[in-house]
């Protein structure tokens, strides 16, 4: 008996990470609203004239289509949404959020609440009032931990209150350290950037 191949059309998503695969292809770790974190092979995406090459970039909304029933699906189409520009510390903050998603969410486990929080956070980071990223990151961390069932046992704080930010940051850091075997690389970079 043959297993029917899964076919997904135009799933809203974002590229979290890409890595080379074979000579001309990429393995894309994508985060979608309805399918969670998925691994996709983008065949020929490293070729100079590939239609996928300019589209598969981080932090830009995409419409992704894929097929296959294996652990790594075959990307068949990717269309870009509106362009979102991130610069400097906002870009590092976005990389940090990507690392959290890659490390804390199981593959193909849908978390629409996390997806929505991610999208809102990216919009704020790219906004014209590029204010302190600390509030955006703490809110995202809090919502991520709540959605995956590892929330901090306290009422949601006021993330805009700079006086309570160190206390909230410490509580979230301790919770994340309990869940992760290895420290987050981007967290250390963000902490180093705060010195400047």
Question: Could you explain the architecture of this structure?
Answer:
The chain is 36% helix and 23% strand. By secondary structure, it is α+β, with helices and mostly antiparallel strands. The chain has two domains: 7-80, Nucleic acid-binding proteins (OB fold (Dihydrolipoamide Acetyltransferase, E2P)); 88-193, Recombination protein O, C-terminal domain (de novo design (two linked rop proteins), Up-down Bundle). The protein has a five-stranded mixed beta barrel with strand order 1-2-3-5-4. The protein starts with 6 loop residues before the first strand and ends with a helix.
CATH superfamily of the largest domain: Recombination protein O, C-terminal domain
Number of domains: 2
Distance between the termini: 62 Å
Multimerization status: single chain
Total number of helices: 5
Give the overall shape, derived from the CA principal axes: globular
Largest sheet: 5 strands, mixed, barrel
Low-confidence stretches: none
CATH architecture of the largest domain: Up-down Bundle
Helix content: 25-40%
Number of DSSP-assigned strands:
5
**Overall mean pLDDT score?**
84
DSSP strand content: 15-25%
| Helix and strand element order | EEEEEHHHHH
Structural class: alpha+beta
Fold-level CATH name of the largest domain? de novo design (two linked rop proteins)
- Top CATH class of the largest domain: Mainly Alpha
């Amino acid at each position: 008996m043959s297993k029917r191949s899964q076919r997904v059309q135009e799933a809203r998503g974002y590229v979290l990470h890409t890595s080379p695969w074979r000579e001309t292809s990429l393995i894309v770790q994508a985060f979608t609203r309805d399918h969670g974190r998925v691994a996709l092979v983008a065949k020929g995406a490293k070729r100079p004239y590939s239609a996928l090459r300019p589209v598969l970039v981080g932090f830009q909304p995409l419409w992704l289509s894929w097929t296959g029933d294996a652990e790594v699906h075959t990307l068949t189409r990717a269309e870009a949404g509106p362009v979102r520009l991130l610069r400097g510390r906002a870009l590092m903050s976005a990389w940090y959020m990507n690392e959290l998603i890659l490390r804390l969410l199981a593959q193909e486990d849908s978390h629409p609440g996390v997806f929505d929080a991610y999208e809102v956070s990216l919009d704020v980071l790219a906004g014209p009032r590029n204010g302190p990223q600390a509030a955006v990151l703490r809110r995202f961390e809090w919502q991520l931990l709540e959605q995956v069932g590892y929330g901090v046992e306290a009422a949601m704080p006021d993330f805009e209150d700079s006086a309570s930010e160190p206390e909230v940051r410490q509580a979230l850091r301790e919770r994340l350290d309990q869940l992760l075997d290895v420290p987050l690389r981007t967290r250390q970079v963000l902490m180093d950037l705060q010195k400047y």
